């Protein structure tokens, strides 16, 4: 029997009784593993070898995981600092404990987002407590990191890490799980017979070379066949992120519904973010726990003068002859303070005021799909930033039916037809409604937005004389309803689950 050289080498190295992996055969034949794999497939086709496949999972620490294995997890550091500060008896000031912990930069966020989850204590309103019974030595994640430390690739089956812990470590980007397909090869009886009868090496050529061409030898040689079934490395091309794709789709839908896009600054004066919305200056959401203030500059110099006094007037005394204001102090300096916008309703107030593109005549419809920033506690449905789908319609005689009808039309474009409305309160809308949708896999009601009809007290100072209905919807929540994502961190931010995203088929 005549076979190409590599196949003869593999047959001679393989065995009828002991299965050998492709890697072992590559070592024995001194051929590259790809060549051995190719030869093995050919030989399998000829009935000369039997191939068994299995998928091996191995674990390895990432650089960050190795760092914590070497030192310790940030949440443990925070716990130790909290104990030091006596937080097992009395709640301690968060800022002080963090300062003493030596944690810095992302380490602080990491510590905060894992502390309560792992039972080290509670963080609430700027204070931290430490649970005296918590035991860092029994921290399953820390122990798993220690078990993996120093090893390159550890087979998953050989370590005792429970599934939940492993999942957490992978989510946190501290371990990496890789899969490899292992092929084990044994000789068939036919091969044994052929080997005994003696094999001859057939000269085959894998690639045409310039020499073969110039010498004309190419006409006489035998070319190796292509093996289209051989494994090749999977190449993942770049792709537009599903969140970005959906944002584009949302924009298309809204443009199709007659809306124009608004643009404006991520950092803005509280005036546009809050004061123009008739948000009292002592409103709880305006304290530093919810907003991200700026260190430098802290304030803008000027605001549109006439508008400032009209807004101040509305806050103090309300609008119209029977108006009711807050009768509380209103400070222009407070209004000039800069912050990362907590909603894109700041864009709506800018446009409605006429300062962006001039006075807007009804009927008019505007929208934006942009990032907003909130100092929330991280959890499966909250991040410190998300994309808001802002929108408003200016027209005579708008009613709640117009508002609800608009949402039904909008969400239907994304296959969502069971929107529910719940009465709500916003200082700037009356009536106000929260929107809910049903999560496709958990069946739970998910809050997807907030809406209402702008109040007189807000519109009059801005110089708007007819009705305006408006809303802010969360883009990430829309994706959760569309695709069944359960954790916002899977689709937003640096911890995105790439495999999950790659395997999600965009449905529009
Ligand atoms: N600004 C609101 C959304 C909203 C916009 C306009 C009117 C009513 C509500 C929020 O962020 O939740």
From TrEMBL:
Assembly and oligomerization: Tetramer of two alpha and two beta subunits.
Main localization of the protein?
A: cytoplasm
Provenance organism: Natronolimnobius baerhuensis
Q: Tell me the protein's name.
A: Phenylalanine--tRNA ligase alpha subunit
Q: Which PROSITE patterns match?
A: AA_TRNA_LIGASE_II
Q: Which GO terms describe its biological process?
A: phenylalanyl-tRNA aminoacylation
As for subcellular location, the record says: Cytoplasm
Q: Which UniProt keyword terms apply here?
A: Aminoacyl-tRNA synthetase, ATP-binding, Cytoplasm, Ligase, Magnesium, Metal-binding, Nucleotide-binding, Protein biosynthesis
Which residues participate in L-phenylalanine binding? 345, 388-390, 428, 454
